[in-house]
Amino acid sequence: MPDIIHLLPDFLANQIAAGEVVQRPASVVKELLENAIDAQATNIQLIVKEAGKQLVQVVDNGVGMTETDARMCFERHATSKIRSTEDLFRIRTMGFRGEAMASIGAVAQVELKTRPQNAETGTKLLIEGSEVVLQEPVVTPEGTSIAVKNLFYNVPARRNFLKSNAVEMRHVLEEFQRVALAYPEITLTLHHNDMEVFNLPATKLSQRIVSIFGSAYKNQMAYCEEDTGFLVVKGYVGKPEHAKKTRGEQFFYVNNRYVKSGYLNHAVMTAFEGLVAKENHPFYVLFIDIDPEKIDINVHPTKTEIKFEDEKTVYAIVHAAVKRALGAYNIAPSLDFEQDVNFAPLQPIRLQGGFNSEFEPERNTGGSSSGGGSPFPGFTPPATTTKRATSRGWEQLYEPMKEVEQEERVSMASSGTGLLSDAFAASDAAPASTKKAIQIHQKYLLVQVKSGMMVIDQQAAQERILYEKYMASLQKKTGASQALLFPQTVELSATDAVLIKELAAEFKDMGFQFEDFGGNTIILNGIPADVQAADEKELLEELVEQYKNNSATLKLDKRENLARAMAKRLSARTLARMSDLEMNSLVDKLFACQVPNYTPGGQKTLVIMELSQLHDLFLKN
C-alpha cells in the first residue's frame, strides 16, 4: 500500500491559515492598523479602494523595519513578541508585523516600503501568493507603508463570497472605529476611493467619541471609572434615554484590545436594568486594564474573544462601576426620603373607561365615541347628581349589544362587499359586520365573529398591513412620494451613511427622496406619500436603526429587511384612539393581506375566543 500522508506546500498551508485570519478586507485593515500601533506610530493613514477589494493601504510614521525584519515578517510563524511559552500569557502588544502578514501575503499582492529611524534608505518588497517577487533598496520616509492589492486574486472561490462594496465598507469602518476609539492619542485618517471619510486628530477619548459618532453624543455620555487593584475599569456609558434598538455602538477593550464578550455585556445590561426597555441597548465604550497573566487572549485566531481567570470578580466590578456611574450622574432613579409615605393621602382610583371607584359614569361632554367620551359607542350616561349609578344606567351599557343579532342578519343578507374573500368569509373567523369593532386601551380591537369574539392587536395588524404594502412597492418600484415643505438635513454616522447609500435605490422605490450633501450628511426632500409628515428625520434614523437590528439577528435580502423595518417603525407610531371608520378600515385591510394572522416576525395579529371559552370563564369551579 503506497504512503498517502504528505506535507502541504508552504503556499497552500499559508492559504489555509489565511482562512482563519483574513476573512474579508476588514480583516486586513485590522491587522495592518494594529501593526502600525505597535510600531509606535503617532500618525496613521488608511487608504481603501473598492471597499478594500482593490486596495488596502496603511501608512504610518512608526519605527519602521530593517531589511531583515521586512523579509522575515512574511514568513510563517514569524513574530516579534514571543520568545518562550510564558510570553503567550504576557501579551500586551497587538502584533508587531509578522504572524498575519504571512497569511495576507498568501492571498494578495503586497507592496511593502519601510525605513527604520536614522537609516539612509529603506527596503521595498513585492509579494505575490507567498512568493517574493522583488526586494530592493528604496527612498521612502521613516515608517512603513503596506499596500495590499487584489485580495483573494489567487483564490477566486473566496473572492466570490465577498459581499457588495457597501457591505464590505461597513465592516472596514467598524474595524477602523474600534482602533480609533482605543487610541485617541493617535491621529488617524481614512480615505475611500480618494474621498476623505474620517480625519481624527489626536485628542482625548470623549472628543474621539464625538468625532466618530457625531455631536449628538456630547450630552449623552456619563464617565465611568473604578480602580480596585485587581483591575481598572474606565470609559463612558450612554444615558438610558438614548438607548437604541441595536447594540452596534457597544465597545469593550481589555488591555486596549477590542473584544467581544457576552458575559461582560450582561454585566453592563444588568446595571441598566429598569432604566432601559428590554429590547433597547445602551451605548458604552469601556476599557479594562488587567494583568495579562490573568487572561487568555489566544482562544480565537483574531483575538476578539477572551477568557478571564476569575470571571465572577470581573463581572462584579464591571457591573458595580457602571451602576456607580449611572448613580453619580443622577441617571438612576432614587427614593424621595422627604415624603412620608405612611401619611400620604390616598387618591381615588379611576378605572380606564370612564368610571371611578364608586362606579359613577362620567358625564358625556358631547364628544364622539372615538374622541374621549363614553367608551361604548351609542351610550350616553344618564344625568345624575348621586354618587352611585342607578341600575337603569347600568342597563344602558348593554343596549348597543341588543342590535348585534339583527345587524348580523342584515349584513349577511346584504349584497355589499365584506371583510374577506368568499373563501375566508365562510370560516368561523370572519367578522360578522364591519360596524362592531370596539377599541380597548388604544391597543386592541374587539370584533364579533360567528363563533365568538376576535381580539386584534392594533400595532401587530398595522405592521402586517404596512409590510405587505411596502414589499409590493419595492417589488414593483411604485412607491409614491410626498415632497417636504422644508427639506431636512440629516447628519449620520459614517456606517449609517454608507448603509443609506447602499440602499438608495430601495429607499427611492418606497417613496423616500434624498440627495447626498457631502461627507456623512444627506438632504431629505420627500417621504412615502401615506406617511404622516412629522419627525421625518427621526423616522429615517429609526428606519436605519431597525434595518441594522434585523441584519444582526436575521438573514434577509435588502428589500425584505427594509420592508420589515419600515413596517415595524411606522406601526409603533399608530397607537392612538381610532374612529369607527378607522377601525373598520384596519380590519378590512388586515383580512385583505396574504397572511393576516401573523406579523412578518411571527407575532400573532389576532386571537379568536370561542363562545364556549367565554362561557367557561363564568362557570363556577
UniProtKB/TrEMBL annotation:
CDD domains: HATPase_MutL-MLH-PMS-like, MutL_Trans. Residues 209-327 form the DNA mismatch repair protein S5 domain. One of its GO terms (molecular function) is endonuclease activity. Residues 356-390 are annotated as: Disordered. The keyword Hydrolase applies. SMART domains: DNA_mis_repair (SM01340), MutL_C (SM00853). Residues 437-578 form the MutL C-terminal dimerisation domain. Pfam families: DNA_mis_repair, HATPase_c_3, MutL_C. Residues 530-557 form a coiled coil. The keyword Hydrolase applies. Keywords: Coiled coil, DNA damage, DNA repair, Endonuclease, Hydrolase, Nuclease. InterPro entries: DNA_mismatch_repair_MutL (IPR020667), DNA_mismatch_S5_2-like (IPR013507), HATPase_C_sf (IPR036890), MutL/Mlh/PMS (IPR002099), MutL/Mlh/Pms-like (IPR038973), MutL_C (IPR014790), MutL_C_dimsub (IPR042120), MutL_C_regsub (IPR042121). It comes from the Bacteria. Belongs to the DNA mismatch repair MutL/HexB family. This is DNA mismatch repair protein MutL. It comes from Pontibacter anaerobius. The gene is mutL.
